C-alpha cells in the first residue's frame, strides 16, 4: 500500500529540517583540553600538536585542544586541575612527580636508563604499567608515555663543566631530590628551578650553571646566556600524558579508541623526534656560539661512579616499597 502523499512530504520535510538544524542542536564532540609547559618550538610540543591534529582529523566524537607554554595552567596547577576536572588532560615529565610518586624518578637515576633500545621498549611495558597503576592511585589516569630525552647538557657562562672538580661550589639548577643528591655528592649546590625560569635565573646570576635536555637548550635559548655546554647521557626522561578518569570513562568507545590509537602513534613519533632533535641540537648550539663538549666514555664512567650510588641509595629510601620493583622492571628491559 502506497503511503499518502502528505505523509511522504511531511517525512521529507522533517529529514530536511534535521539536516539543516544548527550545529548547536546536534551532538557535539567531547572536548579534551590538554595543558603543557613546553614552548611551541620544543619537539614534544610538536608531537603533542600532531597528536591533536591526528585525533581531530578522525572526527570520532572527541576534539583535542592543546595549550602549550603554560597558557592554560602553570606546571604546578596541572595535576590538581586535571584531578578535579577543571580541564581534561595534561602532561608531566616523570621526575616532576617527586615525593607524590617517588617511583617515577627511577629513569632519572644518573646513567641508569639511557640506552635507546631499552627506551623503545618502555611504552606498554610492565614498567610503564607499574607506573600507570601508581598514577591511578592519585586520581588521574595515565594514557601515554612520550620519550623526551636521554641527552642532557650542563651549561655554564664561566668555564666548561667537565671534571668532577668543576662542580665544586657551583649553584646549579636542581631537577628533583634524587638528581640533587647526585649533584651534592660532587660538591654542587643545586637549587630547584622550574624549566621556564632557568634562563632568567642564569641571566640574573641566581644560578651559575644550567641542567636541561639538550633540545630544550635550543628551544629555550640557553645560548643567549651561556657560553659552555657539556653533553652527556645523564638520565632518561619521559613526558607522561594523563587525563581526568571521569572524562575518559564517559567518552564513547569510538572516541576513546581514536585517542588511544593517536597516543600510540605519538609514542612512536616521540622517539624519532627526540633522537633527531637531540642530534641536531648540538650543531645548533655550536652554530649559536656555544662551546660544546661531548662527554667521553671515561668521563661518563667517572661521573657515574661518583653520582649513581648515592642517588640509588636515596631512591630506595624514598620508595621503600615500589622502588626495588620499578628498578627490576627497568632492568628487565634489556637492550
UniProtKB/TrEMBL annotation:
Q: Which GO terms describe its biological process?
A: transmembrane transport
Give any Pfam family that matches. DctP
Gene (name only): dctP
Q: What is this protein called?
A: TRAP transporter substrate-binding protein DctP
- Name the domain of life this protein comes from: Bacteria
Secretion signal span:
1-20
Looking up InterPro entries in the UniProt record yields:
DctP_fam (IPR018389), TAT_signal (IPR006311)
Keywords, A to Z, come to: Signal
